[in-house]
Design brief:
heterodimer, A: 322 residues, alpha/beta, Rossmann fold, 2 domains, 17 strands, 26% helix, elongated, B: 254 residues, 13 strands, 29% helix, binds flavin-adenine dinucleotide, binds adenosine monophosphate
C-alpha cells in the first residue's frame, strides 16, 4: 500500500471540470499529511494535452477508444484494475454525475469505504479527517478518513479551484487500459436547448423556487423581473414541474450564474443550487423560514411571505422608474 | 416487467435539526421523517413505466416512523406489492448496510429493473443506487431524467451540468438512479390512500443483523459555522419593498 493520494480527473467533451481542481487542492492537503504524492488519473481517448494545469505530482493517462466517453461500467472496471494495483491511501472523486457512481461502484467492488458529500479535508496529528455537508447543508459531519484505503466524493465549496492549479505541466505516465464493459452503451448526446435567454449572462435574475407553489404564480414574478429589467430563473423543482423551461435552471445540473443582483424567492438554498450562485455580486433572499441556508449566502434577506412582498415590490419598482 | 423501488426515509429539513447528546448524530426523537424526494420520483417513474408497458411494481421501505403512510401512498398511486424491512432499523444505519440488506431482499424477486432516487441529503457513505448495483452485480447509471424500455433494454437520459444530456442504453436487469421522473410525481387524494390502507397488504420481512462496514465513523456533528449571515430587513411588505428599492439603487440596478 502507498501513502499517495489519487485524484480522478473529471472531464466532459474536452473540458476539465472545475471540480477536478478542487479535488487537487484537497489532495495536496492530504498528501502533505500522509507523506505521499498527489497522483492524477486521466481516463479518456486522445486526451493528450488535457489537464496540463492540474496540481498533481504525476499524471497517469489511460488512453483507450473505449474510454472516449464516460460509460459508467467501463470507467469503473478501468479504475478498479488501476486502484487495486496501486492501492493509494485515498482516492478523490467529484460528487457529480460522473464521480458519484464510480465511487459507489468501486466502494463495493474494492471493499474500500466511501465518504460522500465531502466538502473539506484536514489533518490532525497525522490523522486524515473528512468534513462532509449533510442535510442540504444544514449539518456538518466530521471524522477520520478510514484506513488503509478510502474513497472520497467531494462537493465544491471547501476549496477554490485556483488552489488546485499549477503553471507547468505535470510529468505524464501512460498506463495500460483494462476497460471492459458491455452492458452500457452511449447512443447520443442531446444538446441543451438554445434560443432562450442565456441566464449566465444576465445582470439581474429574479429566481423562483418551490415556494411559488404553482404555475399560475410565475406570472407575478415575471412582472417583477420585467419591472427591474431582468429575467426569471428558477430552482430545480420549478423546472421539473414544467413551470419554466430547463434553460432557466440555476444550479448543479443547470447553469452557473453571476448577475449583479440575484433575487431568490422561495428558494431554500440547497447546496446543489447554492454552488452555482456564489459568483453573484449581491444575493437577496425572500424566504419565510428564517433558518433556510439561503440566508447564509445572501447579503440581505427577509422572512416576509413572497406573496405579500412581490406585488408591493413590483409596484414600488415601477414607481421608482417613472 | 418487474420493477422494484427501494426507498429511504430522511429527515424533513424544514424542521429544526437537533444534534444528540453524543454530539455525533442527529437526535432521532426530534426528527420528522419523510420520503426522500428523489425516491418519490423513482416511484413515479416505475408507475409510469408500468402504465405504458405493463408489469409489476414493488416498493420496499425500512420500518421507520411514517413508513406505512409512504407504502400505502405508493399503493394508491399504483404500486402492486409493498414490503417493509423489519428489525434493526431502530437506529440510523448507513447506506452500505441498507444496500446489503435490500440486496438480499431483492435477489429472490428477480427484478428486471431497480429504480432508486439518485441521492438523498443524508448519504454520508454514498447513495444507495451504485452500492445496491454492486451487491446485485447489475449495471448502474445515475442522474437520470427519462427512461424508456424495449427488448430487455432501458434507454435513459443521463444529465450533465448545463443541460447536456447523454442518451445511454443499459442491458437489463439494471439499477437506475432517478433524478426526475418523466412527469412530476402525481398527487393522490387522501381518500385513495385510505382505500389503499384497506385493500393493500404490507408484507413484513425481517432482515439479518446489519453490516455497516464501508461507511465512515462520525466523530463530531455540528451546524455549519457561517462567515456572515444575511442582514435581515424587517417590516411590513410596503416598508421592506421601500428598503429593497433603496438597495437596488445603491447596487446600481435601478
Ligand atoms: C444531482 C442533483 C442535482 C441537482 N441540481 C439542482 C440544480 O441544478 N438546481 C437546483 O435548484 N436544484 C438542484 N437539485 C435539487 C436540490 O437538491 C434542491 O432539492 C432544490 O434546489 C430545492 O429547490 P427549492 O429551494 O426551490 O425548494 P425547497 O428546498 O423546497 O425550498 C422552498 C423554500 O421556499 C420557502 N417558502 C415557501 N413558501 C414561501 C413563501 N410563501 N414565501 C417565501 N418563502 C417561501 C420555504 O421556506 C423553503 O425554504 C439537484 C439535486 C440533485 C440530487
Ligand atoms: N411520491 C410519493 N410516493 C410515496 N409516498 C409519498 C410520495 N409523496 C409523499 N409521500 C408520503 O405520503 C405521505 C403523505 O404525503 P403528503 O401528501 O405529501 O403530505 C408522507 O408520509 C409522504 O412521505
Amino acid at each position: 500500500m502507498s501513502q499517495d493520494i489519487y485524484v480522478v480527473i473529471e472531464h466532459l467533451r474536452g473540458q476539465v471540470a472545475d471540480i477536478s481542481y478542487v479535488l487537487c487542492a484537497a489532495a495536496r492537503q492530504l498528501a502533505a499529511a500522509s507523506g505521499g504524492q498527489v497522483v492524477g488519473v486521466l481516463l479518456g481517448h486522445n486526451v493528450q494535452g488535457l489537464a496540463q494545469d492540474v496540481a498533481v505530482d504525476r499524471l497517469l493517462v489511460m488512453d483507450d477508444p473505449q474510454l472516449a466517453d464516460f460509460i459508467p461500467d467501463r470507467y469503473q472496471q478501468a479504475l478498479a484494475g488501476l486502484l487495486s494495483a496501486q492501492a493509494p491511501r485515498v482516492t478523490l472523486f467529484g460528487d457529480t454525475s460522473i464521480g458519484a457512481e464510480l465511487a459507489g461502484g468501486l466502494s463495493v467492488q474494492l471493499g474500500w469505504p466511501l465518504v460522500s458529500y465531502c466538502r473539506s479535508v484536514r489533518a490532525d496529528d497525522g490523522r486524515l479527517l473528512y468534513i462532509s455537508q449533510l442535510c442540504g447543508g444544514k449539518v456538518m459531519a466530521e471524522g477520520e478518513i478510514p484506513a488503509p484505503h478510502a474513497l472520497l466524493a467531494m462537493v465544491p465549496g471547501g476549496f477554490q479551484a485556483e488552489q488546485g492549479k499549477r503553471t507547468s505541466p505535470p510529468p505524464v505516465e501512460t498506463v495500460a487500459s483494462a476497460a471492459v464493459g458491455g452492458r452500457i452503451t452511449l447512443k447520443q448526446y442531446i444538446e441543451p436547448e438554445s434560443g432562450d435567454v442565456d441566464i449566465s449572462k444576465e445582470a439581474i435574475l429574479v429566481s423562483v423556487g418551490r415556494g411559488i407553489q404553482n404555475a399560475d404564480n410565475i406570472e407575478m414574478v415575471q412582472e417583477l423581473a420585467a419591472a427591474l429589467g431582468g429575467v426569471v430563473s428558477a430552482s430545480r423543482p420549478v423546472v421539473d414541474q414544467g413551470w419554466l423551461p430547463t434553460t432557466r435552471l440555476v444550479g448543479k445540473s443547470g447553469k452557473r450564474v453571476k448577475p449583479r443582483l440575484y433575487l431568490a424567492l422561495g428558494i431554500s438554498g440547497a447546496p446543489e443550487h447554492a454552488e452555482a450562485i456564489t459568483d453573484s455580486q449581491t444575493i437577496i433572499a425572500v424566504n419565510t423560514d428564517a433558518s433556510a441556508p439561503i440566508f447564509d449566502i445572501a447579503r440581505y434577506g427577509t422572512t416576509l411571505d413572497l406573496f405579500d412582498l412581490v406585488p408591493a415590490l413590483t409596484e414600488k419598482v415601477r414607481q421608482a422608474k417613472q | 416487467m418487474h420493477i422494484v423501488v427501494p426507498v429511504k426515509l430522511v429527515p424533513d429539513l424544514v424542521e429544526e435539526l437537533v444534534i444528540d447528546a453524543s454530539g455525533c448524530a442527529l437526535d432521532p426523537d426530534t426528527l420528522r421523517l419523510q420520503l426522500n424526494e428523489f425516491d418519490g420520483h423513482a416511484i413515479e417513474q416505475a408507475i409510469l413505466l408500468k402504465e405504458r408497458g405493463g408489469g409489476q411494481v414493488t416498493v420496499i421501505a425500512p420500518d421507520l416512523e411514517g413508513v406505512d403512510d409512504v407504502l400505502y401512498t405508493a399503493a394508491a398511486k399504483g404500486a402492486d406489492r409493498l414490503i417493509k424491512l423489519c428489525d434493526h432499523f431502530g437506529q440510523a444505519v448507513n447506506n452500505h448496510a441498507m444496500a446489503r440488506a435490500v440486496a438480499e431482499v431483492i435477489k429472490p424477486l428477480q427484478p428486471d429493473l431497480v429504480l432508486t432516487g439518485v441521492q438523498s441529503h443524508s448519504d454520508l457513505d454514498g447513495s444507495i443506487g451504485p452500492l445496491l448495483a454492486g451487491y446485485l452485480a447489475m449495471p448502474y447509471v445515475g442522474y437520470i431524467a427519462g427512461v424508456t424500455l424495449s427488448d430487455g433494454r432501458a434507454t435513459v437520459r443521463k444529465e450533465y451540468p448545463g443541460g447536456l444530456v447523454a442518451e445511454l442504453e443499459v442491458t437489463l436487469p439494471a439499477v437506475l438512479g432517478i433524478q426526475a421522473a418523466d412527469q412530476p410525481p402525481r398527487y393522490v387524494a387522501f381518500s385513495r390512500i385510505r382505500q389503499a390502507m384497506k385493500s393493500a397488504t404490507i408484507e413484513e420481512q425481517t432482515v439479518a443483523a446489519l453490516d455497516t462496514s464501508g461507511g465512515p465513523a462520525v466523530a463530531r456533528m455540528y451546524k455549519p459555522e457561517v462567515a456572515a449571515r444575511a442582514t435581515m430587513l424587517d417590516g411590513k411588505p410596503d416598508e421592506v419593498a421601500d428598503q429593497l428599492v433603496a438597495l437596488f439603487r445603491e447596487l446600481g440596478v435601478l
